[in-house]
């Protein structure tokens, strides 16, 4: 009898030990939170976010985005180095936070009663909804009520949250909305907004933040009609990080008077980002700009025609050496300050036409070296221009996508160019072969096309 009891008593002992150890581990987690104090001891904070046109992306290989700029400002205000991680989707944001892979979710998470039990919401609370995107040219009739959607053609991609909302709204209204599914995989939400602007389709649906950002590219769209209920959202930290939540709340109140939110909001949602779309400038007596001699001088350093440098400069600045873009690119050649700094040039010096052109040529030459496997000079030229506009990492991503989908990774038109354009679609920029995330690819696609077209025009006018 005694011998039979030993295994059972041993089991109880082991079970008690396991419970004790588990309880001890839970107590260790609770009594050793990674809160602001611990982050300051380490000197760094890790934020997780998503790639998108509004939250986080790389432009000319420099990190940007509304959420990125804000969390970067908070980190600086606390004297912390910022580490950024990117989740595959919204669900993973919370999973990575709770697993300790990140200290804060720097992305608007929808506030629900369930999530309130799991995380601490903090920072500025946003209210967002889906909106109708419609054209607002002179003579266009602006819809102001959802009931006016009955009988209208609304274009959306199928199996998306926009399509789902539109079908639900159609049921709510008793039917009558003509929902037009765009079946092409190669069309993105931002493509649809552009198509509305150009009058190619009458209406589409978008998140209001995406719509607000795109309105800075397309002045003639109206995004005032909400087609869904407002949703509250905010950043989030773990339950055991109350100090961090408090610090983010105090920073978000902007009591210091730094007006961070106002400045960042203006940068992304108010400043015009429309590219220069003027007619081809007139060339008289072989004279393109006041800087032709400088273009001739520095073109020799890269072995290109000087007219090509002139075409790039016009695209970047319209030959205005004092211009600063919404993203911070400066001078005749549109150089980012950090890029200039890496080449030993200050932002102030970029306003000097000779230094600006020389620095631009230095950048172009370095990008061209990244495509040594491309032997055709014209192809290499287009890849170099794309890298100058977007950053070479995005072009490498597009090459990998092209190869994956059976296209030629060393040819631009109809091959890599198509996948550069598709890097604004989550299906493509979240592909494992992509290392650099979201890109407003249509901009780079158009950039190469327009610079080459103007270059050809300049050559014809200056050689005749």
From TrEMBL:
Gene3D superfamilies: 1.10.530.10, Periplasmic binding protein-like II (3.40.190.10). Keywords: Cell outer membrane, Membrane, Signal. GO terms for molecular function: peptidoglycan lytic transglycosylase activity. It comes from the Bacteria. Pfam families: SBP_bac_3, SLT. GO terms for biological process: peptidoglycan metabolic process. Belongs to the transglycosylase Slt family. This is Membrane-bound lytic murein transglycosylase F. It comes from Parabacteroides chinchillae.
């Amino acid at each position: 009898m005694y011998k039979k009891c030993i295994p059972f008593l041993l089991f109880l002992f082991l079970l008690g030990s396991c419970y004790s150890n588990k309880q001890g581990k839970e107590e260790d987690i609770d009594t050793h939170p990674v809160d602001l104090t611990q982050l300051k001891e380490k000197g760094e904070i890790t934020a997780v976010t998503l790639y998108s046109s509004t939250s986080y992306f790389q432009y000319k290989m420099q990190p940007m985005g509304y959420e990125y700029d804000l969390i970067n400002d908070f980190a600086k205000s606390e004297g912390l180095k910022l580490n950024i991680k990117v989740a595959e989707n919204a669900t993973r944001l919370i999973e990575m936070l709770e697993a300790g892979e990140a200290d804060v979710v720097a992305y608007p998470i929808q506030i629900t009663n369930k999530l309130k039990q799991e995380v601490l919401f903090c920072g500025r609370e946003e209210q967002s909804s889906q909106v109708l995107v419609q054209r607002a040219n002179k003579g266009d009739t602006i819809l102001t009520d959802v009931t006016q959607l009955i009988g209208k053609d609304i274009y959306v991609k199928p199996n998306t949250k926009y399509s789902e909302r539109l079908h639900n709204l159609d049921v709510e209204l008793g039917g009558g909305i003509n929902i037009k599914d765009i079946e092409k995989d190669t069309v993105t939400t931002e493509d649809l907004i552009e198509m509305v602007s150009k009058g190619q389709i009458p209406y589409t649906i978008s998140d209001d933040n995406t719509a607000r950002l795109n309105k800075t590219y397309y002045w003639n769209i109206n995004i005032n009609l909400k087609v869904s209920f407002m949703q509250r959202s905010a950043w989030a930290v773990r339950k055991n990080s109350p100090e961090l939540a408090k610090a983010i709340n105090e920073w978000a109140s902007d009591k210091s008077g730094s007006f961070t939110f106002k400045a960042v909001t203006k940068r992304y949602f108010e400043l015009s980002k429309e590219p220069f779309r003027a007619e081809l400038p007139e060339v008289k007596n072989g004279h393109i700009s006041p800087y032709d001699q400088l273009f001739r001088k520095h073109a020799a350093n890269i072995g290109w025609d000087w007219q090509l440098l002139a075409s790039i400069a016009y695209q970047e600045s319209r030959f205005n050496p004092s211009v600063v873009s919404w993203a911070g690119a400066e001078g005749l050649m549109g150089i980012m300050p950090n890029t200039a700094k890496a080449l030993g040039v200050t932002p102030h010096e970029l306003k000097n036409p000779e230094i600006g052109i020389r620095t631009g040529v230095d950048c172009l030459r370095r990008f061209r070296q990244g495509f040594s496997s491309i032997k055709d000079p014209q192809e290499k030229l287009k890849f170099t221009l794309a890298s100058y506009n977007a950053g070479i990492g995005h072009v490498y991503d597009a090459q990998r996508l092209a190869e994956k989908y059976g296209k030629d990774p060393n040819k631009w038109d109809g091959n890599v160019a198509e996948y550069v354009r598709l890097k604004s679609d989550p299906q493509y920029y979240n592909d494992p072969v992509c290392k650099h995330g979201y890109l407003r690819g249509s901009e780079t696609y158009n950039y190469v096309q327009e610079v080459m077209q103007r270059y050809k025009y300049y050559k014809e006018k200056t050689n005749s």
